[in-house]
Write a structure and sequence with these properties.
The complex is a heterotrimer of chains A (193), B (209) and C (218). With 193 residues, chain A is an alpha+beta fold. Chain A is built from 6 helices and 7 strands, in the order βββαββββααααα. The chains are: A alpha+beta (193), B mainly alpha (209), C alpha+beta (218).
Chain lengths: 193, 209, 218
């Protein structure tokens, strides 16, 4: 079936997740537990930014649940993977205060291989995965061979404000992202201090 | 004048061959435009597609419905669909011209039904599926058992926890962690981040202005 | 094994999208189940596209300005359409479970009503005088001998029935016009998609009293 949009529940969280990105969520609140229960029926849900004034960002990450467990503290942990970025509009609040939105799929970067400038970024990311077991646990099959995958994972990990990361949602932002990462991760000599 | 039947036939065969060669080249070009639209949102490639198809669609729809403004709507809708669906075209399944034709056929069907029966049920995709079956890239949770286990898991949660405010994990690193990983002083990381952001904003400004 | 197919004229019109939705749905159900007609439709579509798209003589010229402004408007959006897994829709009629053919999944359907061995639900397809329905004949049931004032299209979705002309199974596509008389009987019960443009007319003796059933089925 081909669709132009979906009506999906929104999990409000200022988290930057690009396609293929995985993160762990801890779910407490009843309305979100219900949402998780229904996630299979609804084709996943949207993680999007929402502040207290009910202001909702106009884009979000459409995710699928790929794994779950109960933590030592008895909380529900779920692993979600981003399928696509979506445009978010027409939000509605249900009785249980769960927000549903109209989610329109957006195009992101194409698959990119063998961009020379990405080689050092890949090496650094591989090292990071080696040092942090939590990352390895998130990604069963890391796609280091794909430059777009490597760059996207770096952007998610970097300590930069959500507002600034938003600039990389645009489908033509790949090169800007490589420039950005190269400056942060590799550039040592051209610093203007 | 003195041309033998044999050589005439040969000429004809060569002509036919030349045409099919031409078609093949044409198909290749159209398929490439579609790929560029799908992957890079390439406006120039889309303009080429538009130049190739729009005047033909305009003609087909005009002769079919005898109404130029309706035909213009078919052109607009079909080309919008090509822009939105280009990534669904699969060159191994057939010619790109056939794919655009099916898009046009489906668009016209839904449009006409909207006008004639006042129905916006968009049935065309059910009658003429543009994609045969969808490969789910996430199979893990498709598993019925897994979802059942998860329900059980949720139901077993102690009540007080069901009502606490939600919590979450960020996977983001701290500046300290990044400095440690890259083996540079924290100050360097901070100034690099500032610089990178300044450059980014300057660059984005150029794009958007 | 499917024995009864739409004729080539119908398939051609189907490939061109020129049939009313109710009839197109009937052919789509058949094509979904019949690999032979599926290939035929694919070939017809290819032929049609070749005729229309592969000759530059068949164009209506557009102004550069017009092209530029339409391209500009369309490419403004980053939105895309995506393919998601189809959701099977199943229905339950008189204790029988059926999975609906893909073609029918999004067609709005009325509640079921029944008389004797027959149960029927209408599609609100809004193509008067054409009416499309799902008709269930329960095991051992039959439709009394009748003719059609107009035409009657039946596509078997599930089960079998037989009439004077033969035995029909899932996927069979049967188009009858006013000249035909038949009285279908089913041993194992069946579910059919039907389209008619006028009430069935019962022809024999006491069955004439059943003519209200004719309008029930229609």
């Amino acid at each position: 079936m081909i669709v132009g949009f979906m009506i999906l529940p929104l999990f409000p969280l200022p988290i930057f997740l690009l396609p293929a990105g995985v993160t762990q969520l801890r779910i407490f609140e009843q309305r979100y537990l219900t949402m998780i229960k229904n996630a299979n029926k609804t084709d996943g849900f949207i993680i999007g930014y929402a502040n207290n004034d009910d202001e909702i960002s106009n884009w979000g990450s459409w995710v699928d649940i790929i794994d779950f467990d109960t933590g030592d503290d008895g909380m529900l942990n779920i692993l979600v993977r981003c399928k696509k970025l979506v445009k978010v509009s027409q939000h509605k609040r249900q009785q249980d205060k769960l927000i549903t939105v109209k989610a329109t799929p957006l195009l992101h970067w194409p698959e990119i291989n063998s961009n020379k400038r990405c080689i050092p970024l890949r090496t650094q990311l591989q090292q990071l995965f080696k040092q942090h077991d939590t990352l390895n646990k998130l990604y069963a099959t890391p796609a280091f061979y794909r430059d777009d995958w490597v760059v996207a994972r770096w952007l998610e990990l970097l300590p930069v404000s959500f507002e600034n990361k938003k600039l990389f949602v645009h489908p033509n932002s790949f090169i800007s992202a490589v420039d950005f990462l190269t400056t942060v991760i590799l550039e040592e000599n051209n610093l203007i201090t | 004048m003195g041309q033998s039947i044999d050589s005439m036939l040969q000429n004809k065969a060569q002509h036919a061959k030349a045409i099919s060669m031409e078609k093949e080249i044409e198909h290749k070009a159209i398929a490439d435009w579609l790929t560029n639209v799908a992957q890079k949102r390439d406006k120039r490639a889309f303009t080429e597609l538009f130049r190739f198809f729009a005047p033909k669609i305009q003609r087909i729809a005009t002769s079919k419905y005898g109404n130029e403004s309706l035909a213009a709507e078919v052109v607009q809708e079909t080309m919008t669909n090509v822009w939105r669906k280009a990534h669904l075209f699969d060159a191994s399944k057939g010619a790109p011209t056939t794919w655009v034709y099916t898009v046009m056929r489906n668009v016209s069907f839904d449009l006409l039904r909207k006008i004639k029966s006042k129905k916006e049920d968009n049935l065309s995709d059910d009658f003429w599926p543009l994609v045969e079956s969808v490969e789910e890239d996430v199979k893990v949770f498709e598993d019925h058992l897994a979802s059942k286990e998860m329900m059980a898991c949720i139901d077993k949660l102690p009540d007080p926890q069901k009502s606490v405010v939600k919590g979450f994990y960020f996977m983001e690193m701290s500046q300290e962690q990044l400095a440690e990983h890259l083996d540079v002083p924290l100050g360097t990381i901070k100034s690099r981040l500032r610089l990178a952001l300044a450059r980014l904003k300057q660059h984005m400004g150029e794009i958007h202005d | 094994m499917i024995k009864h197919h739409p004729n080539s004229e119908l398939l051609e019109k189907f490939a061109d999208g020129e049939l009313p939705a109710s009839i197109a749905a009937g052919i789509a159900i058949h094509v979904e189940m019949c690999p032979v007609c599926k290939v035929a439709v694919a070939e017809l579509t290819e032929q049609r596209s070749a005729i229309h798209f592969e000759s530059s003589d068949l164009e209506m010229p557009m102004s550069e300005l017009n092209i530029a402004s339409m391209v500009e408007e369309i490419t403004l959006s980053d939105e895309i359409d995506i393919a998601i897994a189809d959701k099977e829709k199943s229905i339950s009629v008189k204790g029988e479970e059926y999975i609906l053919p893909r073609a029918l999944t999004n067609m709005a359907m009325s509640k079921w009503s029944s008389i004797g061995h027959l149960a029927r639900a209408r599609f609100s397809i809004d193509e008067e005088p054409l009416r499309a329905s799902l008709l269930q004949i329960q095991a051992g049931g039959s439709v009394p001998e009748h003719t059609h004032k107009g035409f009657e299209l039946t596509v078997l979705v599930d089960g079998h029935f037989e009439d004077e002309l033969g035995i029909y199974g899932p996927g069979d596509f049967i188009l009858l016009d006013a000249e035909h008389t038949h009285s279908p009987v089913t041993k194992d019960g069946c579910l059919c998609y039907t389209v008619a443009n006028d009430a069935q007319h019962f022809t024999q003796g006491i069955n004439k009293l059943l003519n209200p059933i004719g309008s029930f089925i229609y």
